[in-house]
Design brief:
The complex is a heterodimer of chains A (225) and B (94). Chain A is mainly alpha-helical and 225 residues long. Chain A contains ten helices and no strands. Chain B is mainly α. Chain B is elongated. Chain B starts with 7 loop residues before the first helix and ends with a helix. Classes of the chains: A mainly alpha (225), B mainly alpha (94).
Chain lengths: 225, 94
């Protein structure tokens, strides 16, 4: 890869079909396909291995898609796995397990976000309109870092950047935002995103380009060039 | 200095590492001669790096991760579904 390209790491390669013994690890590492086969036969060990293998990634997607709400992201992560394993017998293996799982995460988070917005609109209409357009305002206490040695200007600037990024993402239509988040934060390829969202690659490219342009415009003050 | 409008989409895909080698090479050759696109490339790379840095997802702690895995196994084993009120809310789509 050229050094002019953004350093977005590729997905790790899949584990081979045969279990691999990792030095220091008590259990052999099985490929997803084998674990899925066992999970379909109600093997609790295989189910747990799949949870442990993917829960950080699922949580990261949920956290991003749910606007940084850690508690909601934890609950939805748990829901995603419960939903996945309750319907795993219907998983035909036409796509990889993680693509299928990502599809469940994305749909779960889109539904959850829609519900969040609906509740906010009903109970806090004044906050809904504000949150839609703006990032949350951080008080000076929130901006102050607990570490006395940290640079307060850098900390405040970091918080401001976080707010501005949230605000820029909130301005994107839902599909553009999801695609941008999967590409930039989860480092998925366009082909993987297309498969997970069941869209044509060209459509994903167009949404990604538009989302990138909007984010770039919103954050032009941070380009520093 | 302005970037070449017709190249912006490819420049974006190039930054994301999504161009095939031939198209990527074309962009690289162009960047060597076009100051506007070089600046645009620099701006875009900086913004995306900043966006990524500002939006780091926290990780589940080992304790949280283990507790979640245990809870999922326990719920699946017990065969308990969603609570009636949760099912109701989902059915009503609220």
């Amino acid at each position: 890869m050229s050094n002019k390209q953004l350093n977005l790491a590729q997905q790790p390669e899949h584990t081979p079909d045969e279990p691999v013994n990792i030095p220091g690890s008590p259990d052999p590492v099985y490929a997803d396909e084998e674990l899925v086969r066992r999970a379909k036969n109600d093997d609790p060990w295989a189910t747990e291995q799949l949870v442990l293998r993917y829960q950080q990634k699922v949580y990261a997607i949920a956290y991003q898609m749910l606007g940084g709400d850690a508690e909601e992201a934890r609950d939805r992560t748990q829901d995603v796995f419960l939903q996945a394993f309750r319907s795993i017998k219907r998983f035909k293996g036409k796509s990889s397990f993680y693509t299928w799982l990502y599809r469940i995460v994305i749909n779960t988070c889109i539904d959850a976000r829609r519900r969040q917005n609906r509740w906010k609109k009903i109970f806090f209409p004044w906050r809904f309109d504000r949150d839609k357009d703006e990032a949350p305002h951080h008080s000076p206490e929130e901006i102050a870092d607990a570490n006395p040695n940290s640079d307060p200007l850098a900390t405040a600037s970091g918080r401001q950047l976080e707010d501005d990024v949230k605000s820029a993402l909130n301005k994107l239509p839902q599909r553009q935002r999801t695609i941008f988040q999967l590409k930039v934060f989860q480092e998925m390829s366009i082909a993987e995103i297309a498969e997970a969202l069941e869209l044509a690659e060209g459509t994903v490219k167009t949404h990604l380009f538009r989302a990138t342009r909007t984010v770039q415009k919103q954050l032009k003050g941070w380009a520093g060039v | 200095m302005q970037a070449c409008e017709h190249l912006k989409e490819n420049l974006t895909l190039y930054v994301y590492g999504e161009l095939d080698p031939a198209a990527g090479q074309k962009v690289e050759n162009h960047l060597e001669t076009c100051e506007g696109c070089r600046q645009e490339h620099e701006r875009l790379s900086t913004i995306l790096t900043r966006v990524k840095e500002a939006s780091m997802s926290p990780q589940l702690s080992p304790l949280e991760a283990r507790a979640m895995a245990t809870e999922i196994s326990r719920t699946l084993k017990a065969g308990t579904g969603r609570t009636w009120w949760r099912q109701y809310l989902e059915f009503m789509d609220i």
